[in-house]
Design a protein that fits this description.
single chain, 230 residues, alpha/beta, Rossmann fold, Arc Repressor Mutant, subunit A, two-stranded antiparallel ribbon, 46% helix, globular
């Protein structure tokens, strides 16, 4: 696996890169190589040199950009790469707004190494990591029977078993979790826009949610993985 880490603090970048490559147990993914960038321009140049990046880790507070606008701009510049936010701002509103803007997960900078390891394992396997959220943070978000407060699992749960979705619905949900808009889902799956909307309606109904953000939270709470397809 190859990760692109975007953060404007060299010491943090170097420390996290060393942690990921030498201390975290990501053997099931063949280990992880980390490419570093200090701003969005350098990150785009890095993607040109490393088009095989699997996941982007993005800090919301860069030297020339601050807050959720950083994520919004990055999603416009590089929409095809799934991105997980790294931030010291772990307020529920910030977390949910990041998911709403297409992030595939959110890892607070305050987590310890063991949580970072489990979070990266989950997102690299096609799951979603979110820190614990207040029960009322997302209206109508479902609570699976096996849910717990940490949103972490020792063993991934089969999505078809847990969510009750068809194979094509799982394909749509996987791309939704990666932050893809409807038009991109149509292109990737060779489906019409009306068909994608029909699948999304069925997904929301089965997950008992009413929005994309709630669906991503539901996937995190269910602890399922939606393996990416090459």
């Amino acid at each position: 696996m190859k990760l692109l880490l975007i953060d404007d603090h060299p010491l943090f970048r170097d420390g996290l890169s060393l942690l990921i490559q030498h201390r975290l147990d990501l053997a099931e993914h063949g280990g992880a190589e980390v490419v570093e960038a200090g701003n969005l321009g350098d990150a785009l140049a890095a993607l040109t040199r490393h088009p095989d990046v699997d996941l982007v880790l993005l800090d919301l507070g860069l030297v020339d950009r601050q807050g959720l606008g950083t994520l919004s701009e990055w999603r416009e510049l590089a929409p095809q790469w799934p991105v997980v936010v790294l931030s010291a701002d772990d307020r529920p509103g910030t977390i949910l707004a990041a998911i709403d803007q297409g992030a595939s997960g959110f890892i607070p900078k305050t987590v310890d190494a063991s949580v970072m390891q489990e979070a990266l394992r989950r997102v690299l396997s096609g799951g979603v990591y979110l820190p614990p959220l207040p029960s009322d943070a997302v209206a109508t978000a479902p609570t699976p029977a096996h849910d717990d407060d940490t949103l972490l699992r020792d063993e991934p749960v089969g999505p078809e078993t847990t969510l009750g979705l068809s194979g094509r619905q799982l394909d749509v949900l996987r791309l939704l979790v990666e932050g893809k808009p409807n038009k991109e889902i149509c292109r990737v799956l060779s489906l019409s826009e009306s068909t994608v909307k029909t699948h999304l309606s069925a997904i929301f109904r089965k997950l008992k949610v009413s929005s994309r953000t709630q669906a991503v939270v539901a996937v995190a709470r269910a602890g399922v993985t939606l393996a990416r397809k090459g």
